[in-house]
Amino acid sequence: MASHSPTEPESESQSEYADGWRDISRLMDSGASWSGNERNCAYVNVGERRFVDVSAVTGLDHVQDGRAVAQTDWDGDGDLDMWLKSRNGQQLRLLENRQAGARPFVALRLRGTTCNRDAIGARVELVAGGATYVQEVRAGEGYLAQSSSELLFGVPASAELERVTVRWPGGASERFEGVQLGRHQRLIQGEGRARLLAKRESSLPAPSALPTLDASKRVVLRTPLPLPTATQRRFFDSGRPGSRLVNLWATWCAPCIAELGDLAQRSADLAAAQVEVVPLCLDAEESPDAARRLFEQNAAARMSAQAAFASRDTTETDRAFFEVLFEHLIAARGAMPVPTSFLVDALGRVVVVYLGPVDVDRVLSDAATFGADPQTTAVRGSYPGRWFFGMPRDWAGLSRAFEERGLTVASKFYAALHRRSPASK
User: Fold this and answer.
1) Higher pLDDT among residues 360 and 384, named by residue
2) CATH number of 217-391
3) pTM as predicted
4) C-alpha span between 268 and 303 (Å, rounded)
């Protein structure tokens, strides 16, 4: 159990603390709930220090582990909507407030001139209908969350707006005139009068149906993963230029057999693109003959004679190596699915992972984009967009994972990468 951080270095409690976090991480990687499948909770303040649980009626009671929530008037209608981040569910949800019956509101965006521009720390006091409402501009709230810096006040329907006062960071107070109900406004330090903002509307169309899942999933690695030199020598043709497609298959896997046939049918195209196909059979070592016959029948006969490739048997050590590699790249525990393929670039680094049968045209495109020459981090992604930072790899953790499986050579290779990485300095 990971509890309080140990205070003394190199102590027994420090070792137990590290073991506890490692066990919890493995539990999370296996798909377990950090919160014990406890649903999210939401409460309404009904006054006199009393709260009512409205989790179910609001639709906020998701069973997935909630991690962060940010509030904002996303659609500009004067009520608060929410963005919710989950750990093991949909990564990001927009929860739009569509409660019937609009009520007056005041939305204020502050800008500092002599204090910080975002007016972080400013305190706004709004008086309406004899009641006083107070909010502060904050830089963050909750866990890893930042709500909108716009302050949204809801007031009773019959209330009249009486006064708006801002206490700016530093202590100076300023009263603002011209603040209107039902409008979004800007309060600039030193002006004393509100500026009306144009009505803003923003919405996301509701999906008509759940997205369909492809048979194959493609994961482009933002940071390529070098393979140990020993692994490259064992499986790759050292005198051959270009990239490699390492294809893991098994005789009992029908999609694997069909995939081998597709790769064989396009062997000339793959060879022309300098893609070496490396099928590795994951069957037990005791029955290699059946795998060879199956490969001959379903793949070898369909290949171009000038671009033929052969399947290779694997040992228990080989299978353990790829299982550890898969767990590190996909962050998933349990049995590695087949077929699974790895595209390895000309420098011996894994650049793309394919889960399920591969599309040969997709492989050819990826080989042209990622396999021949090193690419910048910005263009590495499974979806459109650009990255502005790389993803540091846990070389030390990967080295430990190989060591735990008795794969000493691979463990030493990644331990050496850890020693050379800036994070170890």
Assistant:
1) 360
2) 3.40.30.10
3) 0.62
4) 8
